[in-house]
Amino acid sequence: MGSTEEEYDFIVVGAGPSGSVLASGLARSAQKPSVLLLEAGGDNKNAEYLVPADRFALAFSQPSLNWGYKTAPQKHLKGQQIDYSRGKGLGGSTAINFSCWIVGADEDFNEWARKVDDTAWEWKEVKERFKRIVTYHTEIPEEHRKFIEPKVEDHGVNGPLHLTYADTWEKGVGDVFVAAEEVGLGTVKDVNSGKPIGMGMGATCMYKGVRTTAASFLEDVPPNLTIKTHSPIAKVMLSSSKVATGIQTIDGRTYHAKKEVVLSAGALNTPQILMLSGIGPSDELAKHKIPVLHEMPEVGLNLQDHAFCGATLITKPGTEGRMVFENDADAVKAARAQHAKDKTGILNSLYCSIPMGYFQNDAIMASEEFAALDPYDQKHLKKPTVPHYEIATHVPPLYIGDYQLQPTDCYLSCLNFIMNPHGTGTVTLASSNPEDAPIIDPNFGSHPYDRRVMIEGYRKMIDLLQAPVLKKDTVKLVGLPKGMSDEEIWEYCSETMGSSWHMCSTVRMGKSGDKGACVDTDFRLNGVKGLRVVDLSVIPLLPNNHTQSIAYLVGQTAAEKMIAEYRLDK
């Protein structure tokens, strides 16, 4: 396809949560600037992609929705190459993620604000901004309100993204909250209150029987917002005076920006696009014979992510019903027909109520690994709302070891996640060809503190699974280390660890004078005019949450800042 001469006020690259929220916000402002939103994938409008019960399977069953990345072999995880799925198409990774809405700890945002010297990131500001993003339906089945009961006044009621709790919770979910109380972990009625410590449950990205994604912001598109799918980017075009003038697609089209280009391609593809455009570490660009147009050594560094490991309880017949249902072809067929007809039935409850808890741990804070941390980091980790690890239950049976699941089995599967990881990784180029995947090395397990958190959190996860309320229905605990010593737990985790796909911080934000920062607190790329980065690349720390909420927040914040800067609301 040949070159075009199309010109827009703003060009946004990437229709994930950050890009969709930003493009929509700019286009719907009073001044109605012309906005072009470019997306590498398709429109993702197939109704089969939006079934709530498929939330854990969609990334693997629909290759067209997934970039399909793998990490480089992990040095500290016995050479594992870990799945690093990234969403493709309208909605980005919100189209294939696990639909969990968790915003994190209030002190994470206060720390973010301190790091970048901007009160816009403080919890009191962020909490109100989240309300503008979501409509948070707080209705909970009555029998579960003693454990989970968010208050409507604490959440949004008019945002484009609808969040709900399942009308019917899967059998046995309530026992997890009893178990958390029994073993001293405790519960929290609203994990999204900014004070997440305890076993809780976040809302799910679904509404009226349909998965909700960032494409919610792209409905009823105004005429000044142009969306072009199947438009992967080759590079940003820069003038000799380091001004971003537009972008070029892989198939040779060029689009010009009168005001700004914004990269919202995510924490893996945004640094790749920058480097392909001649912006990045000079040695990395020279390696691939890419002319250095603007040296920026930090591009692609500081990659952070939440890693996890798990175990599974095999439970007595009748304690839950996933396997029995999934192995009954007639029942599955009938359920899909019912959902296709009127968006009701079991496919709105299966896998749709996931207890997720955030916890602190005395053994971690008493460890030599904790003592070796910078005193400032220790102070942050001691704040009462900042968790050290997360436990989630009622996930698919990822950790069963040598056990062979039978069609009539019942199970309760559980994951332990490292929060506040201290190890960092990199995104580098495989070649100068934009169609080649970047080299992604999250460097999991490289930091002693992260290993300590995994070990202690894993022990607490096993304690939870052995609580009296669960033990009475337990047949067998599977997917375990050989023993529970530090060495045995880490040995097992190093062979089986996975990624939450919460990658971030590869084009980091910082305050004036921060030599490690790539963008300022208004998302402007340092040293280049007319170019911003608005996605999870920029966040200066990995919050203790599930990061899709932050991707939406980044888009909303950028929209508000840019609308104010350009006086688009006048």
TrEMBL record:
UniProt key word Zinc-finger: no
Record's protein name: Alcohol dehydrogenase [acceptor]
Sorted UniProt keywords: FAD, Flavoprotein
Stored Pfam families: GMC_oxred_C, GMC_oxred_N
Active-site residues, as the UniProt record annotates them: 502 (proton donor), 546 (proton acceptor)
Annotated family: Belongs to the GMC oxidoreductase family.
Residues that bind FAD: 501-502
Domain called Glucose-methanol-choline oxidoreductase N-terminal: residue spans: 87-110, 266-280
Cofactor(s) the protein needs: FAD
Single Gene Ontology MF annotation: flavin adenine dinucleotide binding
InterPro entries (alphabetical): FAD/NAD-bd_sf (IPR036188), GMC_OxRdtase (IPR012132), GMC_OxRdtase_N (IPR000172), GMC_OxRtase_C (IPR007867)
S-adenosyl-L-methionine as UniProt keyword: no
